[in-house]
Amino acid sequence: MAYDHGDSIQYRLTTKVSELREAVELQKLVWGPDAVSSMQHMRAAILHGGSVIGAFCEGALVGFCYGFPGYDGKEAYVGSHMMAIHPAYRDRGIGMRLKLEQRLWAMQAGYGKIVWTFDPFESRNAYLNICKLGGVVSTYIPEFYGLDAAGFPTDRFLVEWVLSSDRVACAVSGERRPMDNASDYPRLLTVAYSDDGLPGVKNGTYGGLIGKSHGLRLPIPRAASKLKQAQPDVYRDWQRQVRERAAAVFADGYQVVSCHQSEPEVQDYVLERKV
After folding, report:
1. Would you state the pLDDT for residue 6?
2. For residues 146 and 174, is the Cβ–Cβ distance under 8 A?
3. With left for phi above 0 and alpha for psi between -120 and 50, is residue 146 left, alpha or beta?
């Protein structure tokens, strides 16, 4: 499968060793050497039911996504492990298009679901995964990769992308299904601002909210990396409280179904009870 997109970007399955080596170099550029999936690992995954889908500009690899087969004891699915876009080609819709190509490939291969993890504090990734792609989240994984270089837990949300669902079909077509006014949902955290304008959260009780409302909101900072560098203790406390509250609401049957910018510096996850 090969498609033109905008400025001569083409998308296709990638199986050649030379192109997979390009994918390794792109990973190093985007994620650093410690996060690399090797050419040999990707090659083996392709042989056993996985895929690497590349975005090419004038023959050069400028982005890719990589997934391999998974099984949870009930059904087979695709574990989407890695996506990388060359910095010079960001904000051109390549990430969205790679996921759509991955969805098409997975459906043709007989898979019904793709899952992947992402940092809950990455607000742009959250918007792509949940709003534009139609994924849902009901699992929080603490310290998925241990601690990062600065000593912060690498906590992750697990996205489930049910490929043929009405929700996903509407999202990828650009439609937005009507939902309740999320601004009426109570927040699980109270946001407060410091003198320098950076947001933080207050300690407070939240257990009384769970189960009493059809919907809830869980705020995160929109510029998490800035907060992490400027006020690491504030970031660490916010991360801890998000972990506690997400675990509690997921255990009670809620899932993340949307997210929106509620304040200039804050984005809310919108959670609703599973139907």
Report:
1. 47
2. no
3. left
Extract the tokens encoding 90: 């960001």
- Measured distance CA(139)–CA(127) in Å, rounded: 17
- Which residue intervals of 109-202 are DSSP H helices? 123-126, 166-172
**Packed helices 39-47 and 17-31: angle between N→C axes, nearest 10 degrees:** 120
CA distance 179 to 216: 13
Residues in the chain: 275
* H/E run at residue 100: helix 94-108
Encode pLDDT of 227-247 as tens digits: 999 999 999 999 999 999 999
CA distance 59 to 174: 30
Spatial CA neighbour of 173 closest among 134, 117, 201: 134
Whether residue 259 contacts residue 268, with contact meaning beta carbons closer than 8 Å, is answered with yes
pLDDT tens digits, 96-111: 999 999 999 999 999 9
**What is the spatial distance between Cα 224 and Cα 234, in angstroms, rounded to a whole number?**
11
Residue 156 confidence (pLDDT): 98
pLDDT exceeds cutoff 70 at 177: no
- The sheet with strand 9-13 has its strands ordered as 3-5, 9-13, 51-57, 60-71, 76-85, 113-118, 156-162, 136-141, 254-263, 266-273, 215-221
